[in-house]
Write a structure and sequence with these properties.
mainly alpha
Amino acid sequence: MILVFGLILYFAVRLLQQKIFLGEINFSRAFIGGFYIVLIASVVYALMWELYFANHGHEYVSDYLAEMKERLDASSLGQLEIESRYTNQKQIMQSYEDSFLVRFGLTTAEIFPIGLIIALANAFYYSVLARKTEKSHL
């Protein structure tokens, strides 16, 4: 995911630089372009998950809870702590299953922060590149 995001952002901002900003792009323009790309990618990712979840969501929730129960049972925690954690996780997964907003928000939050960091790094790269080009023209 990081590699794909990095490549997409690099080439998309490069395309913006060449086609729209006539070869010159600064940090803010590169970051704003990258931000919008990340935002669109995050929403599309979350929508695709919603399509998958509509068909296989109940399986996902039940499989997740079964895995959680196995991990808790294998841990060295006491029975009361295991039941407490499992009950808490079950409530969270119930809200995840029932609420589109919870599911969409959590799914978007999986990908958006990573993309934002990559967009910042990409914008920094293009700002450094712009400074080098500016110095060579002097």
